[in-house]
Amino acid sequence: MSLIHIEEDKCAKCGRCIVFCPMGLLENKPDGFPQPTKEAYQRCVNCGYCVDICIFDALFHKIRKRNANSKDAALKRYETLLKRGVKKNAK
Ligand code: SF4
Ligand code: SF4
C-alpha cells in the first residue's frame, strides 16, 4: 500500500486535501482527482490533516487513521485558511 490512497468512487474532487496539506504533497491529476506528489513518501510529516479534512472519507493514509473527532476542528481550520486567501482547489 502506498502512503496515501484515494478511493475515487468516494472522492468529490473538492480539493480540500490539496489545499490543507501543509507540506504541499497532494496535487490534482488531469482528471481532477487528487494524488500524492512524488516526494510525498519522503516529506510527509504524518500530521493527518489530509485525512481529517476529507468529509467524504475518500482519503486513506498508511499511518494516520481517520479520527471522527478531528473533523470539525479540521473544517474550522480550513475555513480560516480560505478567509486568509488560500486558494480553493489549489494546484
Ligand atoms: S478532500 Fe477527499 S473528497 Fe476532497 S478531493 Fe481530497 S480525497 Fe477527494
Ligand atoms: S499527513 Fe500531513 S504532511 Fe502528510 S500528506 Fe497528509 S496533510 Fe500532507
Description:
This protein has 91 residues and is α+β, with helices and mostly antiparallel strands. The chain has a single domain (4-83), classed as Alpha-Beta Plaits, CATH 3.30.70.20. It has four helices and four strands. It has a two-stranded antiparallel sheet with strand order 1-4. A two-stranded antiparallel ribbon has the order 2-3. The longest helix is centred in the last third of the chain and has 13 residues, at 71-83. The mean pLDDT is 91. Residues 6, 11-17, 34, 53-54, 56, 58-59 line the site of one iron/sulfur cluster.
Q: Helix segment count?
A: 4
Overall form: globular
Give me the Rg, rounded.
12 Å
Number of strands: 4
Please give the domain count: 1
Q: What is the percent of helical residues? A: 25-40%
Strand content: 5-15%
Judged by helices, strands and strand pairing, the structural class is alpha+beta
Largest sheet: 2 strands, antiparallel
Provide the succession of SSEs: EHEEHHEH
CATH architecture, please? Answer: 2-Layer Sandwich
Q: What is the averaged pLDDT score?
A: 91
CATH fold-level topology: Alpha-Beta Plaits
Head-to-tail CA distance between termini: 25 Å
- Taking pLDDT < 50 over at least 5 consecutive residues as the criterion, the unreliable ranges are none
